[in-house]
Amino acid sequence: MTLKKLLEGLLEEKAPGPSPSFSILHIVKALELIAKKGPIGRGKISQELKTGEGAARTLIERLKDAELVVITKLGCSLTKKGEEVWNEFRSVFPQKVRLERIDLTLAPYNIAVQIKDRGDKVRAGVEQRDAAIMSGAKGATTLVFRNKKLVLPTISENVVRDYPLTHRQIIKLLKLEENDVVVIGSADTWERAEYGALAAAWTLIQGSTTTKT
Fold first, then answer.
1. Same domain, yes or no, for 183 and 106?
2. Same-domain check for residues 118 and 60
3. What's the CA gap between 117 and 182, in Å, rounded?
C-alpha cells in the first residue's frame, strides 16, 4: 500500500458517525507531534493542531484503528507500524525549515519543505500553489535542484543570481541532491505557511512510496 493511500484512507467516511472534520495535513502533523513529543495527550494534540476536541478524538481513534498509535494513561505514542510509516514519510520529506529572510515572496512567513527525487513531477508549480491556497496559505513556490543549482521552473534558471537571500538560506539549511524539490509555503502566520508547504508538497507523491500493511 502506498503511503499516500494509507494516510488518505484515514479520511474516508465511516458509518455510523460524522465525516472527518480534519484533513491529511492534520494527520501528518499529528504523526509528527506524536513522533517527536510522545507520549502526548489528546488535549495537547488538539491545541497544537488548532482543532476541536471532537476532531482530535476522531483523528486519534483512526490512527489507533490503523495500528499507528497506542493510547495509554500517559497519552499517545507511535506503534512499531507507526514508526515505520513516519520514517517512510521522513524519507520522502526529510526536512522542513523556516526561512527568516526571503526575497522570493511577499508574505511575512515562509516555510520550506524538501521532497526527495520528485523534480521530474514538477511542471510550472501551479498545482502546488493551488494546493497551498486551498489549505489557507497565500501560496507556494516550487523550486527544483537540477545540475547542482536551484531553478524556478518557467521563471528563473539562476535562483542564486535572481533571489540570493532565498538561495543562501535554502542551500545552508537543506541537504539537497539532484532532482530534489523545495516547496516554500507562504502565509500570514507560521501555522498557515507550514500547512501550505505540506499541502503543496503532498501533490508530488502521487502513486509512489510504498509501506507495509
1. yes
2. no
3. 10
Residue 208 lies in a domain: no
pLDDT in the model for residue 57: 86
Identify the residue whose cell numbers are 507556494.
Answer: 140
- Specify whether 16 is located in the same domain as 52: yes
d(C-alpha 152, C-alpha 146), whole Å: 10
Per the structure, how many domains does the chain have? 2
Whether pTM exceeds 0.85: yes
Do both 75 and 113 map to the same domain? no
Q: In what order do the strands lie in the sheet with 181-187?
A: 96-99, 109-115, 181-187, 139-146, 149-151
144: containing domain: 93-202
Q: How far apart are CA 210 and CA 213, in angstroms?
A: 9
The tens digit of pLDDT for each residue in 83-123 reads 999 999 999 999 999 998 789 988 999 999 999 999 999 98
Taking the C-alpha atoms of 13, 15, 21 and 24 in order, what is their torsion angle to the nearest 10 degrees? -30
Q: How many residues does the chain have?
A: 213
